[in-house]
Design goal:
about 290 residues; Rossmann fold; two-stranded antiparallel ribbon; about 35% helix; globular
Length: about 290
C-alpha cells in the first residue's frame, strides 16, 4: 500500500452520455477502492474530512454528479435518477473499481443503492447516510396528467430563476453557515470556497445547476426501489442523524427492506451528520468496514 501523506487530491475528468464529469482521486491506488458519493446541491469536497481520515487505508474517489461541483450541466434534458445511476456506473466501469466499497449521502445514497441493486456483484460494502428516501408519496399517487403538468410548470418556472449572487465569499459563507449551524467555521469556509464560482461582475454563485431542483416526472418509485434493495446481498449500514428532518419523517426502519442491513442513529447530528459529528461518524465507519 502506497501512503500519500498530506498530498492534495488530484482532479480528473471522465465522460458519461457525452457529458464532461469531474472527480477527485485521493491517491493510494494499490489500496482497496472506496467511492464517496455526495448529495443534492453538494459537491465532491463535502467528503474532504472523511477522505483525509481514510486515505491511507483506501484508494478514495469522490465524483461530482452532473449539474454539481465541477461537472457539466445538462442542457435540453431533465435531471433524473436514471442518469445519475448511469454516471456512477460509468465511473466504476471506467476506473475498474469493482468490487467497491461505497459511502454515500442523501441523493448519492439513493443513487448508489439503486446501482447496487442492479449490480450487487460490484459491491463490497456500503454505508448510506440518509439515502433511503424516495419521491414524495403524494407525487407517486398523483395521476399522470397532473404529474406531467407539475413538471412542465416547474420547469418553466425554474427557467426564469437566476442563480443567487453574493457580493463576496464572506456573504456566501454566512449563508452556508446559516443552512447548517453544526458546521465548524473551517468546514463552512471550505465548502463555500469549493462550492462557488466567481461571476464576471465579481460576485459569487453556487456551482450547482438550479434545474437540479426539478424532479423528473418519470422516476423509480418506492416499490421499485425496494425490489432493487432486496437484491443487495452485501453488508449495508444505514446511518441517520437524530436531529435530521428525515429521521423525524420516517415511519419505519428502512433496514427491513435489505437482506443484510443494519441501522444506526447519531446523536446531535442533522442531515449532514458526516460534518456535524465527524469523529463519531468515522468511528462508525471504521467499526463497520474493519
Amino acid at each position: 500500500m502506497v501512503k500519500k501523506g498530506n498530498a492534495t487530491p488530484t482532479s480528473h475528468i471522465y465522460f458519461s452520455q457525452r457529458l464532461r464529469l469531474h472527480y477527485l482521486d485521493w491517491g493510494n491506488p494499490e489500496a482497496p477502492p472506496l467511492l464517496l458519493v455526495h448529495g443534492h446541491r453538494d459537491h465532491c469536497h463535502n467528503w474532504d474530512w472523511v477522505a483525509e481520515a481514510l486515505r491511507d487505508e483506501y484508494h478514495i474517489v469522490a465524483p461530482d454528479f452532473r449539474g454539481h461541483g465541477d461537472s457539466a450541466w445538462v442542457y435540453g434534458a431533465a435531471y433524473s435518477h436514471g442518469e445519475y445511476i448511469y454516471d456512477l456506473a460509468q465511473l466504476i466501469h471506467q476506473l475498474e473499481l469493482s468490487p467497491v466499497t461505497i459511502i454515500a449521502h442523501s441523493l448519492g445514497g439513493s443513487v448508489a443503492l439503486r446501482y447496487a441493486g442492479i449490480y450487487p456483484e460490484n459491491i463490497h460494502k456500503m454505508i448510506v447516510i440518509e439515502g433511503t428516501g424516495g419521491p414524495p408519496v403524494e407525487l407517486e399517487n398523483m395521476p399522470l396528467h397532473d404529474r406531467l403538468r407539475q413538471w412542465i410548470e416547474s420547469t418553466r418556472s425554474i427557467s426564469g430563476r437566476t442563480p443567487k449572487r453574493y457580493k463576496n465569499l464572506e456573504d456566501a459563507y454566512q449563508r452556508m453557515h446559516e443552512a447548517n449551524s453544526h458546521l465548524r467555521e473551517d468546514q463552512a469556509r471550505n465548502l463555500t470556497i469549493h462550492g462557488t464560482n466567481q461571476n464576471e461582475d465579481g460576485t459569487y454563485s453556487w456551482k450547482f445547476d438550479n434545474y437540479t431542483h426539478v424532479m423528473s416526472p418519470f422516476g423509480i418509485d418506492r416499490s421499485d426501489s425496494h425490489e432493487l434493495w432486496k437484491r443487495i446481498d452485501k453488508p449495508v449500514l444505514l446511518v441517520s442523524g437524530k436531529e435530521s428532518w428525515m429521521s423525524a419523517a420516517k415511519k419505519e426502519d428502512p433496514a427491513n427492506y435489505f437482506p443484510n442491513a443494519s441501522h444506526v442513529q447519531i446523536e446531535d447530528a442533522g442531515h449532514w451528520l458526516h460534518h456535524d459529528q465527524l469523529d463519531t461518524f468515522l468511528k462508525v465507519v471504521r467499526d463497520f468496514l474493519g
